[in-house]
Write a structure and sequence with these properties.
The structure is a single chain. The chain is α/β, with parallel strands linked by helices. 27% of the residues lie in helices and 22% in strands. The protein contains eleven helices and 16 strands. The strands form three sheets. A six-stranded antiparallel barrel has the order 8-11-14-13-12-15. A six-stranded parallel β-sheet has the order 2-3-4-5-6-7. Helix 8 links the parallel strand 6 and strand 7. The radius of gyration is 23 Å and the shape is elongated. The protein starts with 11 loop residues before the first strand and ends with a strand.
Length: 359
């Protein structure tokens, strides 16, 4: 590396291809046949919520999905005018903040519904627990359903109802009974709101019938594979080699000396660690691309640095290593880490520079 290298690429950075993100969104939209509610929670899955929102605007999405009222407020502060749905369940004490952020809450219990209705006629969505057992009204809670029907009879803000599929990615057949439970719940209420929705990325690809009135894609937009459906890569996580050293058989690497050189080899130290988004679970397991070679992480990933066994490859200080998003894909690295692509994306640290292109 020389002083002519851009400052943002002198340590660790991530290149974000917004054109690829839009192409993935179009694929979901074509498959679902309905408008989108793209999920931009967790700072756009770690890639930057506002660049993602701006890139997706030409697709005319119904709105955007977030997890918290603070995330909704941030979008409003940046001029987002479309509907914003907060998918985490509303608690009664959050109602005023949600209203102030001009966001639609997801409501899954009577206390939260009563608190929201007490504030006026602002729109809201009901969540139905069709098998996730995480939040939402349960179809078998008949006493609650009776009270719910009474409250909804005089609730002009009731705009939508939804559920979450728990295994549509790994077992698409499970989506059908969950969808049926949602439809049965709506029938029990005696009235259908304007919007019914259920399909995240995996739900869309599990079956077009689950698109509802709009789809809620997340991981597929950002480059995460869904079953046999492969998106365009969106992000490339990279770091510079900041040191190299030659080891002899028996030499060890990193904290705890959990890796021992089986033969003479070369180690390359990268200027990124778990504070940047290289998960500690990738210790001794992850793969990293340097040049055209794929090399294994040697020893424990540390907070600021990661050591890679490059063998006899020619690697020098200043070379660029791709942690994922190149020949080692996001989904492949997630498998090495025994996790999913969501965690790798949202683990990206704040000191990792985000660089955007749309070509």
């Amino acid at each position: 590396m020389t002083e002519s290298n851009p400052a943002e690429t002198r340590r660790a950075w991530i290149d974000v291809d917004l054109a690829a993100l839009v192409a993935n969104a179009r694929q979901v939209q074509d498959r679902a046949g309905v408008p989108l509610l793209p999920m931009v929670k967790a700072n756009g899955y770690g890639l930057g919520a506002m660049p993602v929102v701006r890139a997706l605007e030409p697709l005319d999405p119904w709105g955007f999905g977030v997890a918290t009222t603070d995330e909704a407020r941030t979008l409003r502060d940046h001029g987002v005018g479309r509907p914003i749905l907060v998918l985490s369940p509303l608690a009664s004490w959050m109602a005023r903040d949600c209203l102030a952020a001009e966001a639609r809450p997801a409501i899954g219990d009577l206390a939260a519904l009563e608190a929201w209705l007490a504030l006026g006629k602002a729109p809201f969505h009901l969540e139905v627990d069709s098998g996730m057992s995480r939040a939402g009204f349960r179809p078998d809670d008949h006493d609650t359903i009776a009270s719910l029907r009474e409250l909804l009879a005089d609730a002009p803000g009731w705009e939508g109802i939804f559920t979450h599929f728990h295994s549509a990615d790994s077992d698409p057949a499970t989506a059908a009974p969950q969808w049926d439970r949602l439809q049965g719940f709506i029938a029990t209420l005696g009235r259908r709101p304007r919007f019914v929705h259920a399909a995240s990325s995996s739900g869309v690809f599990a079956g077009k019938q689950y698109g509802g009135d709009f789809a809620r894609p997340g991981i597929f937009l950002y480059g995460g594979r869904v079953g046999d459906w492969i998106p365009r890569p969106v992000a490339r996580f990279q770091a510079r080699v900041i040191a190299t050293r030659r080891l002899q058989p028996g030499d060890t690497a990193s904290y705890g000396a959990t890796w021992t050189a089986p033969k003479a080899t070369t180690l390359a130290t990268l200027g990124a660690g778990y504070a940047d988004g290289i998960l500690r679970s990738l210790s001794n397991r992850g793969r990293v691309q340097i040049g055209e070679g794929i090399h294994r992480i040697a020893g424990r990933v540390t907070m600021d640095m990661t050591v890679v066994d490059v063998g006899e490859a020619s690697v020098a200080v200043g070379d660029v290593a791709t942690i994922w998003g190149g020949d080692v894909t996001l989904s492949e690295q997630a498998e090495h880490a025994a996790t999913n692509p969501y965690e790798l994306l949202t683990a990206l640290g704040s000191r990792v520079i985000r660089r955007y292109s749309d070509e």
